[in-house]
């Protein structure tokens, strides 16, 4: 049986005027959630997406949103976003004054709580939060911009994360964000990943009309490449 793969297309890679068409394509394809990046221009050298964008998506879809907070003091910024039960929320633990409490708060809202690991963040930090995380978002690129190449040691990092999860018998998903092309994702899946943020390197190219075709082809290529 082919493994189940979680897919979260990144709305950052979509033109705002195409949100409704893309969301309808996401729904028809059956994606698990929609990835939503928040960047503050301090933790990362970019500024994206805002509270109005988040509210707009909430108003047109029931698909869970996957809120990735790339900002200082995520516990404060998170309060501005209308998250709801079923959403996924992750942040970089080094940016928070109280990461353990923030993860617990996210779970208390009925959401999945996750830590995001930049390329330079040690996997050992997972052990500190193992009782309050539902997923790990592993950055295959430096956070901030789409279209970057995968960092050289990324696959080794995934294997190390998988080892920690198995050691502690954790029920935790491993999602990868950054350069998740079909070829890269296949290798990441073998290294321990269980899901991917999809962007311009995989599904979000050539507009909403092509998304379902790209989605089905992507899954086929990473799960059953020989068929």
Oligomer: single chain
Identify the overall geometry: globular
Kindly state the number of beta strands. Answer: 9
Task: Output the structural class.
Answer: alpha/beta
The order of strands across the largest sheet is 1-9-8-7-6-5-4-2-3
Described by strand count, sense and barrel closure, the largest sheet is: 9 strands, mixed
| Fraction of residues in β-strands | 15-25%
Number of helical segments with 4 or more residues: 7
Helix content range of the residues, please?
25-40%
User: What is the arithmetic mean of pLDDT?
Assistant: 91
Distance between the termini: 14 Å
Rg over CA atoms, rounded to whole Å, is 16 Å
Unreliable sequence segments? none
String of helices and strands: EHEEHEHEHEEHEHEH
Secondary-structure map:
Layout: E1 6-9, H1 19-29, E2 34-40, E3 47-48, H2 51-60, E4 65-70, H3 74-77, E5 88-91, H4 99-108, E6 112-117, E7 135-139, H5 154-168, E8 173-177, H6 182-191, E9 195-198, H7 211-223
Parallel strand pairs: 1-9, 2-4, 4-5, 5-6, 6-7, 7-8, 8-9
Antiparallel strand pairs: 2-3
Helix pairs in contact: 1-7, 6-7
List keywords for this structure.
globular; single chain; nine-stranded mixed β-sheet; 227 residues
Give a quick summary of the entry.
The chain is of the alpha/beta class. Strands 1-9-8-7-6-5-4-2-3 form a nine-stranded mixed β-sheet. It has helices at 19-29, 51-60, 74-77, 99-108, 154-168, 182-191, 211-223; strands at residues 6-9, 34-40, 47-48, 65-70, 88-91, 112-117, 135-139, 173-177, 195-198.
Write structural notes for this entry.
With 227 residues, the protein is α/β, with parallel strands linked by helices. Helix content is 32%, strand content 19%. It is built from 7 helices and 9 strands. The protein has helices at 19-29, 51-60, 74-77, 99-108, 154-168, 182-191, 211-223, and strands spanning 6-9, 34-40, 47-48, 65-70, 88-91, 112-117, 135-139, 173-177, 195-198. The chain has a 9-stranded mixed β-sheet with strand order 1-9-8-7-6-5-4-2-3. Helix 6 crosses helix 7. The mean pLDDT is 91.
